[in-house]
Amino acid sequence: MKFERPVATGSVPAEEVVPLYVSQPLLPDPTALNEYISKIWASKYVTNHGPLSLELEDRLAAFLRVPTARLFNNATIGLLVALKLFDLPPGSEVITTPMTFAATAHSIAWNNLRPVFVDIRKADLTIDPEAVELAISPRTSAILAVHVYGCICDHDALQRLADLHGLKLIYDAAHAFGAYWNGRPVASLGDASVFSFHATKLFNTLEGGLITTNKVEDRESIYLLRNFGIKNEEEVVAVGINGKMNELQAAIGLLNLDIFEIEREKRSRLRQRYREILSGLDGVLLQEAAENTTQSEQYLLVRIDRTRSRLDRDQVKERLAERKIFARKYFYPICTDYEPYRNMPIISKRARPYAQIAKEQVLCLPLHSAVTEAHLDLIAEVFREC
């Protein structure tokens, strides 16, 4: 709707600004895509491990520096398969974070496992290893941690716990494609990592996902799990699911991989501009990447703390929407607010879990190459007014 308050000098009226959303799909040149489509139409090979999907797997394995990289039609199927890969005991517990998308918890429940939610770290909102340690019991079989908002989990601490207690360590890396931790690609951490290539992600195949591991022998196991357990035309050797990526998705991925770093660099510069316009505001905490990490540039997160300023997160979001700038309260509500998990506690070293505090503060602002200086002027104006 039209914003009728006085507009600050030098800013752009809201009605002149193109609507801006928190994410925008990275799309390749349609001319280049048409060339791939022509090849697909000529070959008549549209799915079932076609040449383009196999090529994309090889390129992703090289780019992410892992021996095993297996594509999926979406990341939720990837999460289901990553948990199934390790043959976890039915009914056993998988420790995870409530500060994540519903698919993380759902993938545990769908595998006949029990999600156990633990608190997050105040510094970066990733899963808190101290809370993980509190939650480990004889029934625990795995940790499913999340590199949330592109912030990388404390891998050393989590790996120590996994090794000490004989647990599998799996990462939901939906927000962390191309990120590095202590010089290591995030794709190589733990027993497996699952990436999302949904349209909202910087690197996307419109819809898709990827499992990576450090073991070359996992290639065959994951292949069978995503292809009905079919080994060849006459043998079905395992219980599997249909997780294959089609050739049109793979074509998008091959083209986007060529332009991914260009977009990431634009987002990196935009992150710095946000820092310039929002730093110093009382009660506004900007996302900080650890010094030992390379950012994925997936999200621009701010936390708005009402105890330290007059700013109100929901009011800021509403005022931005009046100016056609649509931020998102990722993640609000959190998983333990959803009906399937509502009565489940958040195990924490604190009297009140920090996840319950953070969910009332988080706001993701648009972070992509469509953000203009005019948009930034309006965003700065909203924060000043509020």
In short, what is this structure?
The protein is α/β, with parallel strands linked by helices and 386 residues long.
Structure characterization notes:
With 386 residues, the chain is α/β, with parallel strands linked by helices. 35% of the residues lie in helices and 17% in strands. It has 11 helices and 18 strands. It has helices at 30-43, 51-64, 75-85, 102-110, 129-135, 155-165, 218-226, 247-278, 313-322, 354-358, 373-385; strands at 20-21, 68-72, 93-96, 114-118, 140-146, 168-172, 180-181, 184-185, 192-196, 209-213, 230-232, 235-236, 284-286, 293-294, 300-304, 325-326, 346-347, 362-365. An 8-stranded mixed beta sheet has the order 2-10-9-6-5-3-4-17, with helices on both faces. Strands 8-7-14 form a 3-stranded antiparallel beta sheet, with no helix packed on it. Strand 5 (140-146), helix 6 and strand 6 form a beta-alpha-beta unit. The chain starts with 19 loop residues before the first strand and ends with a helix.
SSE order and pairing:
Elements: E1 20-21, H1 30-43, H2 51-64, E2 68-72, H3 75-85, E3 93-96, H4 102-110, E4 114-118, H5 129-135, E5 140-146, H6 155-165, E6 168-172, E7 180-181, E8 184-185, E9 192-196, E10 209-213, H7 218-226, E11 230-232, E12 235-236, H8 247-278, E13 284-286, E14 293-294, E15 300-304, H9 313-322, E16 325-326, E17 346-347, H10 354-358, E18 362-365, H11 373-385
Parallel strand pairs: 1-16, 3-4, 3-5, 4-17, 5-6, 6-9
Antiparallel strand pairs: 2-10, 7-8, 7-14, 9-10, 11-12, 13-15, 15-18
